[in-house]
Amino acid sequence: xxxHRAYLSLGSNRDAAHHLRTAIAELxxxxxxxxxxxxxxxxxxxxxxxxxxxxxxxxxxxxxxLALNAWLxxxxxxxxxxxxxxRFGDRTLDIDIVLFDEVVMDGPGHLQLPRDELRxxxxxxPLADIAPGVVVPGSGRTLAQLWAAHxxxxxxxxxxxx
Length: 162
Prior knowledge:
This protein has four helices and eight strands, in the order E-H-E-E-E-H-E-E-E-H-H-E. By secondary structure, the protein is an alpha+beta fold. The protein has a single domain, classed as 2-Layer Sandwich (Alpha-Beta Plaits), CATH 3.30.70.560.
């Protein structure tokens, strides 16, 4: 079986430490050795809400992007994720596939690889921490290069222990 490498963005702003800690444990139960970034406190983006805790993770999986996305949605749902509100809003748990090997795809649904949210510091910083040499498909640039060029790269992050 071919194992793929998936790069995930994790976030929560509702009982955030609990949901992230539990989700990381569940990722490890399902995928084994999971690389996890530091956890950062960041302001809500796209709406007025409580601060988020954000992190990134790398998993190795035999699942394809659609099956992995479905598994992650089930994990979010198990954590009480409410999808009935606006697209940008409070979250008990939000896990997105940001990169999946060198795959480039748009859809179905909101599945986009590489994920457009990679432009946000709360997604890019933790990924650059754990995978600085990974080249983002279509950009020709590594995560470290993209982070170094980001307008927020000089800001001192608020790191949170789970």
